[in-house]
Amino acid sequence: xxxxxxxxxxxxxxxxxxxxxxxxxxxxxxxxxxxxxxxxxxxxxxxxxxxxxxxxxxxxxxxxxxxxxxxxxxxxxxxxxxxxxxxxxxxxxxxxxxxxxxxxxxxxxxxxxxxxxxxxxxxxxxxxxxxxxxxxxxxxxxxxxxxxxxxxxxxxxxxxxxxxxxxxxxxxxxxxxxxxxxxxxxxxxxxxxxxxxxxxxxxxxxxxxxxxxxxxxxxxxxxxxxxxxxxxxxxxxxxxxxxxxxxxxxxxxxxxxxxxxxxxxxxxxxxxxxxxxxxxxxxxxxxx
Amino acid sequence: xxxxxxxxxxxxxxxxxxxxxxxxxxxxxxxxxxxxxxxxxxxxxxxxxxxxxxxxxxxxxxxxxxxxxxxxxxxxxxxxxxxxxxxxxxxxxxxxxxxxxxxxxxxxxxxxxxxxxxxxxxxxxxxxxxxxxxxxxxxxxxxxxxxxxxxxxxxxxxxxxxxxxxxxxxxxxxxxxxxxxxxxxxxxxxxxxxxxxxxxxxxxxxxxxxxxxxxxxxxxxxxxxxxxxxxxxxxxxxxxxxxxxxxxxxxxxxxxxxxxxxxxxx
Lengths: 288, 266
Hints:
The complex is a heterodimer of chains A (288) and B (266). Chain A is built from seven helices and 18 strands. The radius of gyration of chain A is 22 Å and the shape is globular. Chain A folds into two domains: 2-209, Rossmann fold, CATH 3.40.50.300; 222-286, no CATH class. Chain A has helices spanning 38-46, 67-70, 87-91, 102-108, 124-137, 154-171, 213-219; strands at 2-11, 14-23, 27-32, 52-57, 60-61, 72-75, 142-146, 175-179, 191-196, 199-204, 224-227, 230-234, 239-242, 246-250, 255-260, 263-268, 277-280, 283-286. By secondary structure, chain A is α+β, with helices and mostly antiparallel strands. Chain A has a six-stranded mixed β-sheet, with helices on both faces. A five-stranded antiparallel β-sheet of chain A has the order 13-17-14-15-16, with no helix packed on it. In chain A, strands 2-1-4-5 form a four-stranded antiparallel β-sheet, with helices on one face. Chain B is an all-alpha fold and 266 residues long. Chain B has a domain at 49-223: MetI-like fold. Chain B contains twelve helices and no strands. In chain B, 32% of the residues are buried. The interface between A and B is medium-sized, with 26 and 19 residues.
């Protein structure tokens, strides 16, 4: 679906360098620390910034095309809602627009009651939903969402994730989401791409296949261990309680704190602790 | 509403500043009688003001026509060379205006290289005391006001909005006209008003390039009042000045109303 080769962007001291990234799935999660290059990568794909290299979207090379010919929409963190236009006008702004979608979409976005309200009078969360909707209604071949849940409460994060997925499936349009907030709403992605200092760390098809400590720590700091300078991840079911092993301190019913080689680690267990010490069954080694 | 001490301290500066601006204007207006103004209006000042306002308006329009694409181009040209280019446009503001008149003669007189080239295309071409001389010289002097005013409103934000519009299928010109121009509208009017006002006030360069304007032999207003002062003394010059100030204030007031409230696209 999306194939990137030899992509280079230089912005001051920062360099984005992607030699070969092949994303075959319809839903892609792009994760990385602040300043790792997530937004720069999305802006390069959308054509908002100049980059060298090739970007193939469904086998068409798009990096040589101007923005309007790429058919790629992008939700920026700045949202870019027109404050003087109503919700309806903002949502209908795209020139390339899908017909017959508006009524369902405005209901899905929970903005039907505010259809005639101007952008200036919306909350940040409502503006963000509107900006997401503007992408969904557009007739794009790829949708890029930069931090689309940052202003949403927990329930709306789930809702927005579902809506993006729903319209992506309905129109068979792939999408990329970047985030540095992790939670239950980040399920079921076809590709999970981790970026660090402008380079791709790994590209996997499931959270279970993450092999890099930096990627795993971005998803959750829980259940990560460093033992004798090696990094590991432990499944909650593989935490065994008994009379031998590591001392622990119960933070809550299923969150424990242990100290290994002078460092503290937090563990999530599948059941409340029932012994004086804990040990690990099978643990998986991670790259660092 | 309770104000802090700093508010009151700064209000003294505001009062002094406004005093410096307003007192001389009021003094001029109060110096003349209504009868005097009516009498002076027959001196030719009205025709002179009409011509000057028209010339200044043409210059303001041309300045905006250049300022909009200039702003678009410079905002998207990150190379340091273009920063240097951008600094050049303020140069005319610092050159003494009589020198600007001389520069214009050196450039556009038919006996000069560029002037002679124009002469070959237009055989009856002449420069001094023509409409062309007035417009090109005022444009040289006053266009920077339009450019800078419009440039300030065309921020990085505007470019982000344009990019968003383009990603939804709008061509660059469509995105610019649909997204940025409505937002810049107020600045465009303000830039026009500044260029217009600056053009009206010009005397130094006009003394050199267009003392009279052919074929009507009408003076621009600054020269007209200067000639009145030299030839007839302070009182008629003050009366003409009052007429100019009153018409100028009315025009600026109309422009202010036209500007309307702040656009708030972003």
